Amino acid sequence: MSFRITSAMMSRTVLRDLQNGQAQLSRTFEQMSSGQRITRPSDDPYGTTRAMGLRAELADIAQARRNIADAEGWQRASDSALSGVGDALQRTRVLLVGAGNDAGGQAVRKAAATEIEGIIKTIKGTANATYAGVPVFAGASTARPYDPDGPDAYAGDSGAVLRTIGTGVHVQINADLAGVLGEGGGDGKLLDTLRGVLAHLRGGTAADADALRTTDLRTLDTQIDALSALRAEVGATGTRLSAAAGRLGELEEAATDQRSAVEEADAASTMIAYATQQASYQAALKAGAGIVQASLMDFLR
After folding, report:
1. 61, 119, 197, 198, 249 from 107: Cα distances, Å
2. In this model, does residue 49 exceed pLDDT 80?
3. What is the pLDDT of residues 68-101, one digit of tens each?
4. Lower CB count within 10 Å: N or C terminus of the chain?
5. What is the spatial distance between Cα 222 and Cα 45, in angstroms, rounded to a whole number?
6. Nearest-5° angle of CA 123, CA 129, CA 131?
């Protein structure tokens, strides 16, 4: 059984093939001009899903890096404040050693007491250090931890300040300076120790002088060690943040390369494909022109 192929059938076939070639040429040109392999989800549904996942991953990494930068700023503010407290304590120790020497007499001890009283105010003021307007040693509270001119009471809380530096990874960035300074009132912490030193400096008795040389000096050294341990914790946290920042940088680079491979078109291969498709389309136009001949009706119009 034979089929008759009419001119209309041939014309429709040629036109359909030309339209398909033109559409393919248009898509390739769009990829070449935009630099994107996927310009719409229908171009590559799987690739689109993969690209969306990679973009979400990159957004999470960027947020984690911002959190790390914020945490590092907090750590720098904390370390600077702790360094200031440490310097104040070293000066206090120098004054205490000098006051324990009987050669200066009570006049030297009273002068030392006046300076140490100022140092206590300095320490409490330093403990009120802030980062981005938030006290760094107040726990989760936004209140000023200490009143330099008032009682030694701690006005913050014991809450933790956390930063997320990865999926399910949280780091506490606030240091417990109140655990070193205390609240006075016989708690045996730093401020209480300094108040005891003041009392012995102003007491004027032989027992007070002996306490300055022995128990007060030993207790102050213990408090200095506690402060050094706290600074070490801050330093360890800073090291952990730096390591996390480096790791996130590597992950970001890898995810960016993967996203580029999924989304972006290779310039060289796209240009070659466009040139090939353009040549094929031009050849199809020439061949189609020979097949689709003008009919009698075309001349009668």
Report:
1. 62, 19, 15, 14, 61
2. yes
3. 999 999 999 999 999 999 999 999 999 999 988 8
4. N
5. 66
6. 165
What is the DSSP annotation of the chain?
Answer: ------HHHHHHHHHHHHHHHHHHHHHHHHHHHH-BS-SSGGG-HHHHHHHHHHHHHHHHHHHHHHHHHHHHHHHHHHHHHHHHHHHHHHHHHHHHHHHTSTTSHHHHHHHHHHHHHHHHHHHHHHTT-EETTEETTSTT--S-S--TTS-----S--PPPEEEEETTEEEE----THHHH--SSS--SHHHHHHHHHHHHHH-SHHHHHHHHTHHHHHHHHHHHHHHHHHHHHHHHHHHHHHHHHHHHHHHHHHHHHHHHHHBPPHHHHHHHHHHHHHHHHHHHHHHHHHSPPPHHHHH-
Q: Which of 229-238, 245-254, 289-298 has the lowest mean pLDDT?
A: 289-298
CA distance 158 to 136: 12
Torsion angle of the four alpha carbons 221, 227, 229, 233, in this order, in degrees rounded to the nearest 10 = 180
The CATH homologous superfamily of the domain defined by 53-259: f41 fragment of flagellin, N-terminal domain (1.20.1330.10)
Contact assessment for residue 167 and residue 60, using Cβ atoms and an 8 Å cutoff: yes
Two structure tokens written together for 249 = 């940088």
pTM of the model: 0.77
CA distance 27 to 267: 14
Residue 296 pLDDT > 60: no
